[in-house]
Design brief:
272 residues; alpha/beta; Rossmann fold; Hypothetical Protein, Haloacid Dehalogenase-like Hydrolase, Chain: A, domain 2; 2 domains; 5-stranded parallel β-sheet; 34% helix
Length: 272
């Protein structure tokens, strides 16, 4: 059986130091070299994910920004992408302006990928900006007009106190998908808002079809992984996963056990 394996990154494949452990990388590279189809789906951008995965030779297309884009991991080329419609972007702008919320805005401006922001007193936002110091994608906007320029495809808001109104506004509008979860590393609350037709699950199904796989095996740990786990033929949670995800998974494995699970699954297939 031709199987496609798709793993989440943070909290699932990556360790607490945001690395793929050497044993896991060695196992994954051996499997990939032998033709096993292995990919990843992450809320991260490709620019953010790729440096953390230098020791794994991924060759299958991968999903980033919670499935907004499918990327060739070798070239970084976008194979699929879906941003906001003009009406949806306008709706979001009106909401954020009215509620005095300053999101981080991800867009293409004159063909260049930019992450726009306005200076904020939020420590979490300041930490995000500091972590990306020197990144040519970062763009300080002078005002709301400049913040919302370009072809927008993603918003991030790191503010726990605005959770109810953000969830009700975007969660009840079919033009949007919203993911709300604690950051794996510092427990800050992230609201990630993107096109309503996008998700890790939709991207996983698209990759399964694109790669001609007969079986889909997915790994995850957090709430944004639940639809992907439910869409899989075999859903696997790591032991540190949230309870909701564990309850819908077929297997629960130890943290750092993704590569070993794939190796065992491939061995079982050969024995059948």
């Amino acid at each position: 059986m031709n199987t496609l394996y798709i793993t989440d990154l943070d909290g699932t494949l990556l360790d607490n130091d945001k690395r793929v452990p050497e044993h896991a990388a060695k196992t994954l590279n051996s499997l990939i070299a032998n033709g096993v189809k292995i990919s990843y789906a992450t809320a991260r951008s490709f620019n953010s994910a790729a440096p953390l995965l230098r020791n794994v030779r991924f060759s299958c297309p991968c999903a980033v920004y919670n499935g907004v884009f499918i990327i060739d991991p070798k070239s970084g080329e976008r194979l699929y992408g879906r941003g906001f419609s003009e009406n949806a972007a306008g709706f979001a702008r009106d909401f954020f302006t009215r509620e005095k919320i300053l999101p981080i805005v991800y867009s293409f401006i004159n063909g260049e990928y930019k992450i726009s922001y306005i200076e904020s007193s939020s420590p979490a936002v300041q930490a995000y900006i500091s972590a990306h110091e020197g990144d040519p994608r970062m763009r300080k906007a002078r005002d709301i007009d400049e913040l919302f320029e370009g072809e927008i495809f993603y918003f991030t808001v790191i503010r726990e106190e605005k959770l109810p109104i953000i969830c009700s506004t975007f969660g009840e509008n079919e033009d949007f998908s919203i993911n709300v979860q604690k950051d794996t590393y510092d427990n800050s609350i992230w609201h990630e808002i993107y096109d309503g037709g996008c998700s890790k699950a939709a991207a996983a199904r698209r990759l399964k079809e694109l790669l001609g796989a007969e079986e889909l095996v997915c790994f995850g740990d957090n709430v944004n992984d639940i639809p992907m786990i439910e869409a899989a033929d075999v859903g696997v949670a790591v032991e540190n996963a949230c309870g909701e995800l564990k309850s819908c998974a077929d297997f629960v494995i130890e943290v750092g056990g993704v590569a070993d699970f794939i190796e065992r699954h491939e061995r079982r297939k050969r024995e059948i």
